[in-house]
Amino acid sequence: MMRYYLLPFLALAVLSGSCQRSNPNNDPTERKFRFEPIKGIKFYEVRRTFASGLAFNELGFQQTPEWAIRFLSDTTVQAYSPMLNKMLDFELIFSHDGVYNFAREWFRVKEISKDSLLLQRLEVNAKKIAKDVRSEVFMHFYSEDYLKKTGKTLEQLRRPNQQDSAFVKQRIAEANAAIMDSSLFFAARNPVVFEPKSDLVKIEKVSTVDKLENRSASYDYLYPEYTVNIAPAYKDFAYTISAVVDQYGKLHVYKFNATDDYRENRRKVLQGILDLYIGRLVKVTPGHTLGMAHSSLVVLNLIGKK
Predict the structure, then answer these.
(1) Cβ of 64: how many Cβ atoms within 10 Å?
(2) pLDDT tens column, 184-193
(3) How far is CA 93 from the centre of its chain?
(4) 247: number of CA atoms within 13 Å, CB side?
């Protein structure tokens, strides 16, 4: 008689096992998006934008398309490595609701077809998706075959479009109209270039890229920093300041350390150093974005040796 009482429990166990097998976490066929239908197709990223649809934001940061991917199955994907110049295999890890992890990045699949893909790049910390602009990055991909149909090269498709240019032009006009207004600062995609015309001055651009501190390559143009060595100088000094380089290449002291009693005097001294040593002895090419020169902020480590 005991075996009859066990039947309902056995049926429940079988049912539970069946449900588990059909769970999206362990069964790709139950997921909203499948990658098997696009297996082996190579996709190239042609455009990367913010939620606004633009490649630039108010600060001057530019989203740059650079990925190439190929799905080998619902659990494996290849991604291009610029450093190794080849495609590398990565595990395609499903999380939930179209969210996946591969190549050490998190993505939400938005659209998928044999011609194109749309992925949302996500910022994830402590297993939580950041609900801000860091997770509002959209990556548009075209397949190799579809690229050929467009009649354009990959380089052409990856260039900023007319909407990007119009936005940048507007932001540049605002920045140039009030160069000392920090709310209107616009980073130059191609930062200021300093070319000394005298052996008295040596200028070196400092890279602030630091993967451990989550500072990507974009920091080098968003927050450009330079070390300026002057020898001989009128006296020994060492100052770290920020300055605005206007659209004509002239430097204007913006921020520096000083007590209130000495602030105005310190400002005059610092402006004098910029005018005397950089203004006269250095060729300054202002920063520019999409070929348009504009004012931008730089950090200067000024070091003088008497």
Answers:
(1) 15
(2) 999 999 999 9
(3) 24
(4) 15
C-alpha–C-alpha distance, residues 205 and 195, integer Å: 11
For residue 109, what are the β-bridge partners?
Answer: 119
- C-alpha span between 9 and 138 (Å, rounded): 49
In whole angstroms, how large is the CA radius of gyration of the chain? 27
pLDDT of residue 177: 98
pLDDT recorded at residue 264 = 95
- Regarding beta strands 296-304 and 225-230, do their DSSP bridges make them parallel or antiparallel, or are they unpaired? parallel
- Predicted TM-score (pTM) of the model is 0.86
Give the 3-state secondary structure of residue 206.
Answer: strand
User: In this structure, what token pair is assigned to residue 283?
Assistant: 């060729």
Partner residues linked to 50 by β-bridges: 137
CA 30 to chain centre: 34
> What's the rounded Cα separation, in Å, for the pair 164 and 54?
6
112 to each of 120, 136, 137, 143, 252, how far by Cα in Å? 12, 18, 17, 11, 50
